[in-house]
User: Fold this.
Amino acid sequence: MQIDAVKSALIEAYGADAAGVQVAAAPYRACPLGAHIDHQGGPVTAVALQLGVLLAFAPQDSPQVVITSRDFEGQVGVAFLLAFEKANDLAISAEENIELD
Assistant:
C-alpha cells in the first residue's frame, strides 16, 4: 500500500517516531471544461483521478520544515519563524532572522 510506503520512507529518512507519522492525500483532478473557474468561486465540474500526492509528516521540536520527494533529488528547507515565535512567546529581530536563515 502506498500510504505505508511513504510512512516507512519518512521514518527511515528522518528517524521519525512511527506513532506520530501522519499522511495527507490529495487526489489529482481534471476539469473536462479545461477551465479553472473554481479559483474565482465558479461552479466546478472536476473529477478526481486515481492518481495524486501523498504527504507524510511528523511533529518535531524545530521551526525548520524539511521537504523531500521520492521523485526528485535534493531537499527544501523552510523555517516557520512566525509560528515558532508565537508558540514560544518570542520576538525575533530582522537581524536575528537573517542569522537563523
Observations:
- The helical segments are 2-14, 81-87, 94-100.
- The chain has a mean pLDDT of 80.
- DSSP finds three helices and four strands in the chain.
- The longest helix spans residues 2-14.
